[in-house]
Design a protein that fits this description.
two-stranded antiparallel sheet; 55% helix; transmembrane; Rhomboid-like_sf; Rhomboid_protease_S54; membrane
């Protein structure tokens, strides 16, 4: 008889929470018949300022098979939380999960922009991505560098050497699931290597909380500005200077407005 699941949940608290959140979101999506276009991230929606989709797309799954595959892989990769003795652990896992969600999303949109602007491949304007795969592939990559002797267990049936898992899974999913986002998965792998090799580092509780705070602010304001969902307590409007954004919190009548700061020698791209 195997070890009770309860002990694994205790040893992988962050992984358990993420699996639960993704599963609940999948249930809500099915219950309310929400489609890819409503929660997914694409180049067009990013250009329109729907930055909130970077979070909703990562946590959303439309098909149950997609959810089960990602959560099964993520559960196996949760071993990162048990490796505090080699500098990993739960805090490391949480810190760099934030990094993987944001940086892999930014990178895939950057790749789309390059393909569209440089190579004139307009197909990528409307490609809509959903799923936690970018983060899963990122953790596969980090673990393959930090703990190459580990194995990736899928569905409790298939076990892959972690050192080959990122690219094996990249090829496998591309063949078995043609709709899978090759560039999205590749972005997760590239960000994973950047973290593993120290190109992206220095995360601690302060920077993680700061990053999380900015994610929440951008999420709420971009969600409100896009008009996709009604946030009744927050209103974005322009005051005397149309170039300056202002924010009003309904109920107390207070309004905030940014001040103009002259910039010298700065190009806004």
């Amino acid at each position: 008889m195997g070890r009770p699941l309860f002990y694994d949940i205790i040893e992988k608290p962050a992984t358990s929470c993420i699996v639960t959140i993704c599963s609940v979101i999948w249930f809500v999506i099915q219950k309310k018949s929400i489609g890819y276009s409503q929660v997914g991230l694409s180049y067009e929606t990013a250009v329109e300022g729907h930055y909130w989709r970077m979070i909703t797309s990562a946590l959303s799954h439309i098909s149950v098979l997609h959810l089960v595959f990602n959560m099964s892989a993520l559960w196996s990769l949760g071993v990162v939380e048990q490796l505090g003795h080699i500098g990993l652990g739960t805090a490391y896992y949480l810190h760099y999960t934030l990094v993987l969600v944001v940086f892999s999303g930014v990178l895939v949109i950057g790749i789309y922009h390059l393909l569209i602007a440089r190579f004139k491949i307009d197909y990528f304007r409307r490609v809509t991505a959903v799923g936690y795969s970018c983060v899963v592939f990122g953790w596969m990559t980090i673990l393959s560098v930090k703990q190459p002797s580990s194995k990736l267990d899928l569905f409790g049936l298939l076990s892959l050497p972690i050192s080959f898992a990122p690219f094996e899974s990249l090829i496998f999913t591309s063949i078995i699931v043609p709709q899978a986002s090759f560039l999205g998965h590749l972005s997760g792998i590239l960000v994973g290597y950047a973290i593993s090799w120290g190109l992206i580092g220095g995360m601690n509780n302060y920077w993680a909380l700061t990053m999380l705070g900015w994610i929440i602010v951008v999420f709420v304001f971009s969600l409100k500005k896009s008009g996709a969902y009604d946030i009744s307590f927050l209103e974005i409007e322009s005051l005397s200077d149309a170039s300056l954004p202002s924010v009003r919190f309904i109920g107390n009548g207070r309004t905030l407005q940014a001040s103009a700061v002259p910039l010298s020698g700065v190009e806004v791209v």
